[in-house]
Amino acid sequence: MFVARSIAADHKDLIHDVSYDFHGRRMATCSSDQSVKTHSGSVWRVTWAHPEFGQVLASCSFDRTAAVWEEIVGESNDKQRGLSHWIKRTTLVDSRTSVTDVKFAPKHMGLMLTTCSADGVVRIYEAPDVMNLSQWSLQHEISCKLSCSCISWNPSSSRAHPPMFAVGSDDSNVTYGGKVQIYEYNENTRKYAKAETLMTVTDAVHDIAFAPNLGRSFHVLAIATKDVRIFKLVPMRKESTSTGPTKFEVQIVAQFDNHNSQVWRVSWNITSTLLASSGDDGCVRLWKANYMDNWKCTGILKGDGSPLSGSSGQPTAMSTVVGSSVHTSQNALNGMSAGRYFFPPLDLPRAGTRYGHLLPPSSLIEHCDAEPIQPQQQPLPHRHSSRALLPLPEAEGQ
Amino acid sequence: MEEVDVEPAITNIPAASAGTHLGFAWGPGDILVYETLYKASGAIGSGCPCIHEVRKDEDIYSPILRKLFNESHHIFVGLQTIGEDLPSKNKKPQFVSISKNYRSVIRACMEELQQVAVSSKVADVATQYGNQVSILLAIELIWNLCEVLFIDAAPAGSLLLHLLDWVRLHKADVDEKAREVLQSESPAEHHDYWNVVVSYVLQGRLEEARQMLVKQATLQPAARSMYKLMDTLLSKMPFYNPGGTQTLTEFDVKWRHWHEEVDRCLQDNSFASNKHLEVICKILVGDEDTLLEHKDLLSTWYHFLVTRLLFCHPTVKPTELHYYAQSCLTMFLDSRSVPEPLDSILLAAFEFDIHQVIKDCSIALNNWWFVAHLTDLLDHCKLLQSHNLHFGSNLREFLLLEYASGLFTHHSLWQLAVDYFDHCPEFGRVYLELQIERVPLDTERKALKVLRICEQRQMSEQVRSICKIMAMRALRNNRLGSALSWSIRAKDAAFATLISEKFLQDYCARGTFSDLDLIDNLGPAMLLSDRLTFLGKYREFHKLYGEKRSGEAAKLLLSLMTAKIAPRSFWMTLLTDALPLLEQKEVIFSADQTHELMFCLEELTSLNTTAPGADGPMQDEDTELTKVELLRLALARNLARAIVKEGTVEA
């Protein structure tokens, strides 16, 4: 792994969340910017809708609201990116406390947005007309009894799996029992009902993530609590007459306490071959299963103590950032914090140096060595790890 | 063999190392990392608002390695299509030739990299390419050995010949040195002369050694008989000929005779007066101490192994190899404490532990290309199953998926990955589905390319999704024609209705249609949605009218209303369109048709009066009324004319 480039975001303050769009071409960032010194108004999370619904973002904030943003392309046929701008289509004000997470439901369900909040309520909104994003109707309000911190939809679009999401609570009172609840949609009652509570997860949960289903019959769920945990949820055979929610056999697949203390975020890559987690040890850790389903830490990303300052960082990278503030006009109205939206430069980084791990066994390389070459420390952002990041097939019986 | 302990690789991010958290976000091929602070109650802090993009595989961005990926892709695809029906015995030569193809691709790539490395003026670039060369060299070395041991699976006798070729190929500096010596003014007196001769002998290249020796012999007429004796020994050394009639036992007997003869020469001090010739004689007899004295010429323990086998155990069986390999490694490396990863990999190969080879390579080499392709080939040779019942195709698929996923992150190499996924029976399809959705659809052309791949594989959901994305994007950019054709492809009725509606609105506002080509050629696609059908039919009416085919136009116009194809809101427009037809000199609408038109008009006006204000603002009411009056008048007149005309004709 290597740092291909660094980009200075158009924020004056700490970044709270970054979200890549579906195709990995643009990113949205949110922050509690300099203008807002109090806690209130920090934007916790930002997320993209599937591009089938256009260029749509949702954000949630400490100010008890969630917002939906849409990119509007100027009337003229000129397709220059600069002509587009983001406008806030709606503000969802149903929550009476901080909205802690916001997620779009899987696209096969239509354009649906889910929020969860500190008062323990999960809300599911639907945009009945995808061409009119100022209209959202609150379809479901589900009380989870515990302060909610995170939510994740099961991405499976299989007919065998009814819509399902997991919600985590950061309530630290261990006696309140399981902090992860699974809800499932019931076709008959047209309501979401609790299918399962993960009773073994009793500490505060900060993040939760379903893995892409890969056509399997079971589901895989990663949880960020005082450690990283990976669970397998195997649906149990349903009685054909039963109309209740699916029951699951919950198996723990892996549990890692390498972060030493709290784990704050977990997230899967596209094919769920890698799980990344971020924790109090200040590192991002990458977890991977080998083909025998043994999970291992295969990579660590950690700060080297030399932060680039916003201004002196990467002039080249900065110059390519087309800044365009998303929340600007609304900031004036509600005094809330800002998110920024920008386009990363699209040029590819040039490949970096790599260190050989093997003895050069032949004449070819001797030629090469004859050249007076000094390996040089490359300037940022081309930093390199000299180690291979390769997860490994375990030998049998080990 | 002990497992190499894999510590997770650490990547340094230019960010604060203490007191903060690192946030992250996955992208399709990379991960974004930024400094942040997670706290349940919200954070104050002034972190660095920098986002770092961390990539996994940098090899795929190398323009030269790109050829490796491209060409090995062809070989891979070819390998997958080798007939299942052939008995595996007959396939062996094919597998060996495929293995050689892979290696020649590696070699070609290596040479190109080498040239760039040497000619580059930029030290960084030279180092980078140099490093890639050294990795490719190692890969080729390992691959070649695996080919000899596993794929070709040479039996005793041939085995040593293959190993000799392997060592010669990878220790080619002898040839360069020899050229240097021979090009000098007096080769026999060149300081590297004896090194070259000994190197030739060590590699079993006795013909070349003899030719070199001739040069020395002519300079020393006094020692002619001694040189003559050495020449005879060298020329008489038997080599096994796998294609010949001689059996291995016969060869072994012959070889022992020769060995005894060499040993005799050594015992009776035939070469005592010339230390160089004596050294060669000792090598020929396989004297370990003498061999080890030439570590610098052997340079590696595996060269030592092959030389030792050549002069001590030329009929070594595959199963005995590991014993010699282990002892040679120990003898050769006595001063160095820890073997390099390459040593362990080769040793594992000599032990026929394929699984360990693949595993160690995965750890030591910073790329999936090698392990994925080698494992695939070994799996086709049915070698993985026999070695380890639990893995086999599992391992093959695991590695291929990893490699292909890496390729998919590249903006153009992703197309190669598709074929790799196609040949992964268990998860290939799901991976392809997940990955191909993420290919950025920058242009219509690219979208069509991705679409074709999905269509060929009946990935209907992805086909629908791509079309929908393109339709939505076109609509947002006010390109209605493109939006309509994409939504037709997506078979998205609701969206087609929405876009048809926009077309009609546009028409009402401007009086002309855009994207006529598309609408005129809708064909059966028109039936996707009612509104689209109407759009197509309405356009057809305009065409007929434009072509002065009034009768047909009138009939179509009427049917649009009577068959309820036209939305009620559009009826007034349609009736207004009927006006010029009613005003023609010639009677176009028959009496019956006129009746029907009148019925439509009355239906519309009666509806409008029951729901006042529903249709348009107040100020339009006057014009609306005038329009209705005009229509009524025109209809009445037409009816009269039609009755007269129809009566006349029938009379």
Summarize this entry quickly.
Chain A has 398 residues and is mainly β. Chain A is built from three helices and 26 strands. Chain A is globular, with a radius of gyration of 23 Å.
Mean pLDDT across all amino acids of chain B:
85
State the end-to-end CA separation of chain B.
Answer: 111 Å
Q: What's the number of extended β-strand segments of chain A?
A: 26
pLDDT < 50 stretches of chain A? 34-40, 310-398
The helix-and-strand class of chain B reads: mainly alpha
Rg of chain B computed from alpha carbons, rounded to a whole number of angstroms = 42 Å
Strand content bin of chain B: under 5%
Mean pLDDT of chain A comes to 73
Biggest interface in this structure?
Answer: A-B, 137 and 126 residues
Please provide the count of β strands of chain B.
4
Helical content class of chain B? 55-70%
Number of helices of chain B: 31
Listing every helix as H and every strand as E from the N terminus to the C terminus, the arrangement of chain A reads EEEEEEEEEEEEEEEEEEEEEEEHEHEHE
Describe it for me?
The complex is a heterodimer of chains A (398) and B (651). Chain A is built from three helices and 26 strands. The longest helix of chain A has 8 residues, at 363-370. Chain A has helices at residues 315-320, 328-334, 363-370; strands at residues 2-8, 15-20, 27-31, 43-48, 56-61, 66-72, 85-92, 99-104, 112-117, 121-126, 137-143, 148-153, 164-169, 180-186, 191-197, 207-210, 219-224, 228-235, 248-256, 263-268, 274-279, 283-289, 295-303, 322-325, 339-343, 383-384. Chain B has a three-stranded antiparallel beta sheet with strand order 2-3-4, with no helix packed on it. Chain B has helices at residues 65-80, 88-119, 123-151, 158-170, 173-183, 193-202, 206-219, 224-236, 248-267, 275-284, 288-293, 295-298, 301-312, 321-332, 341-350, 354-364, 368-380, 383-387, 393-408, 414-422, 428-436, 444-456, 460-476, 480-489, 493-510, 516-520, 530-546, 550-562, 571-583, 591-610, 621-650, and strands at 9-13, 21-26, 30-36, 50-55. Chain B is mainly α. Strand 1 of chain A pairs antiparallel with strand 4 (50-55) of chain B, so a sheet runs across the interface.
